[in-house]
Amino acid sequence: xxxxxxxxxxxxxxxxxxxxxxxxxxxxxxxxxxxxxxxxxxxxxxxxxxxxxxxxxxxxxxxxxxxxxxxxxxxxxxxxxxxxxxxxxxxxxxxxxxxxxxxxxxxxxxxxxxxxxxxxxxxxxxxxxxxxxxxxxxxxxxxxxxxxxxxxxxxxxxxxxxxxxxxxxxxxxxxxxxxxxxxxxxxxxxxxxxxxxxxxxxxxxxxxxxxxxxxxxxxxxxxxxxxxxxxxxxxxxxxxxxxxxxxxxxxxxxxxxxxxxxxxxxxxxxxxxxxxxxxxxxxxxxxxxxxxxxxxxxxxxxxxxxxxxxxxxxxxxxxxxxxxxxxxxxxxxxxxxxxxxxxxxxxxxxxxxxxxxxx
Length: 359
What we know:
Distance between the termini: 84 Å
CATH superfamily of the largest domain: Periplasmic binding protein-like II
Helix content: 40-55%
Oligomer: single chain
Strand content: 15-25%
Shape: globular
C-alpha cells in the first residue's frame, strides 16, 4: 500500500510538473501537412525558445480560424494571409483587434485554373463571372476567404458570381474545374514549381489564369499594400523548354497576435509584451525554414515594378472594356423598364460597368 501511495504521489507530481511546463504560447497554423504547420511554425518556436519562451504549434483550418482563436485568447499567435486579415478583421471589432508582428518577403499567390481557352485573364473571369461556375477549396480555407475578398472589392466583376461550390480540398477543386465546361478553380498557395498541383493542371489539359487587375493591386489596409504583382515560376525548365512563368497577385504571409492591452492578468500581459518585442525584432532570415524550398521559391519569384505590372493590368482591362457595351445595354434596358412603369424581371439586377467605375 505504501508503494502504491508513493507511485500515486509521484504520478501527481509529474502531472503538476507537466502542467507547469505547459507552453507559454500557442502558435496557430493551418493543416498538419501544410507549410505553416510543418515548415514555418517550428522555426518560430525555436526562436522563441532561444528567447526563453515555450510554444506549441496548433493545426487549424487556416487564417480565419486562427483569427477566431486569437480573438478568444489574445496571447495566442497565428499565421495568416494579409488579404484574409483585411477582410475578416471587421468581424472581430476591426484591425485594432490584432497585432501584425511580422510581414516579411514570403508571399502566397492567387492562381485561377480553367480548361476554357477564352478565359485567359482576370478580366475574362470578371466579365463572365455570372456565367461561370467557380470551384473553391473548403469554406474555412484561406483560398475561399480570398475569393470572398475579391468579390467584395470587385462587385461588378467576380462579385457577380452566382454558381460557387466548395470541394473537399484544393486538388479536387482543380480536377472538377478541368473536367467541366465554363468552370474556374481558384486557390492560394506558395508559388513552388515543384508543387504537384501545377503538374495536375498540365496533365488535365488546363491552363493557369493570372489573377491580376488594377482593382486588386490598389487594395490597402492601414496603408499597407495587400497584393503585389509578382512573376512566379509554375514549371521548371528542362532540356526542351524554358520554365513557365505566370504574373499574378500575391499577398504577404503575416504573423499576428492579439493586442497586449486585452490581456487581463498583469504577469501574463508583461510576458506577452516581451514576446511581441522578440518576434518583431527577429531578422527575416531567422524565420526562414531551414533546408526548405522557400528560399528557392523567393529567388524564383520576382516582384514587378509599377511600370512592369501595368502591361499585365492592361490585358485585364481590355477584356473588361470589350464587355462594357453589353453592360451598358443591360443598364439602359433596366432604366427603360423602370421609366415605363415596369419593374425589372424577378431576379434581375441593374448591371454596372465591369470595372465598377474604377480607373
